[in-house]
């Protein structure tokens, strides 16, 4: 199976929007790495990441907080697909997520404040959500960022 960056990021966004790690888990390499610009230590394994993210997803679900994971596209800093994360409302942008895919698996995810989530082209595509808070169907975009 060929796993593109966009498909990998769609799986991550689906996990964040649904609260279900099953969207992402089968795509993670055993030596998967996760880094956040807000956390000092990097996670260096699939099992370590699952142990980290599963309670976070459960806490979000139990709190009733809303996380928005939207497909996006960077033109300049690191050109290519990304996930734009927002918290509470769709426009309260908090981070970008970037991915590295090797040998058909996700090798690395990076949660970033730089580049800024405000620098990404937003698509209105929220994988794992039936609709957005505004009740509108949103345009789906392909790997080039173009409308499908």
Overall outline: globular
Give the total of domains. Answer: 1
Rg for CA atoms: 14 Å
Please state the second-level CATH architecture.
Answer: Roll
What does this molecule look like?
The structure is a single chain. By secondary structure, the chain is an alpha+beta fold. The protein has one domain (5-122): Nuclear Transport Factor 2, Chain: A, CATH 3.10.450.50. Helix content is 22%, strand content 30%. The protein contains 2 helices and 6 strands; from the N terminus they run αβαβββββ. It has helices at residues 5-18, 46-63; strands spanning 28-36, 67-74, 80-87, 93-102, 105-112, 121-122. Strands 1-5-4-3-2-6 form a 6-stranded mixed β-sheet, covered by helices on one side. A hairpin with a 5-residue loop joins β3 and β4 (93-102). It starts with a helix and ends in a 26-residue tail after the last strand. The model is unreliable at 132-148 (pLDDT under 50).
């Amino acid at each position: 199976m060929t796993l593109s960056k966009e498909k990998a990021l769609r799986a991550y966004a689906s996990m964040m929007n649904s609260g279900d790690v099953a969207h992402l888990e089968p795509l993670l390499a055993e030596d998967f790495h996760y880094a956040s610009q807000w956390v000092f230590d990097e996670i260096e394994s699939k099992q370590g990441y699952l142990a980290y993210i599963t309670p976070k997803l459960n806490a979000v679900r139990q709190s009733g907080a809303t996380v928005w994971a939207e497909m996006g596209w960077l033109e300049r800093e690191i050109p290519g697909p990304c996930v734009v994360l927002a918290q509470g409302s769709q426009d309260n942008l908090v981070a970008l997520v970037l991915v590295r895919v090797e040998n058909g698996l996700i090798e690395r995810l990076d949660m970033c404040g730089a580049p800024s989530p405000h620098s990404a082209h937003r698509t209105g595509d929220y994988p794992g959500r039936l609709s957005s808070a505004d009740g509108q169907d949103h345009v789906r975009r392909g790997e080039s960022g173009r409308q499908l």
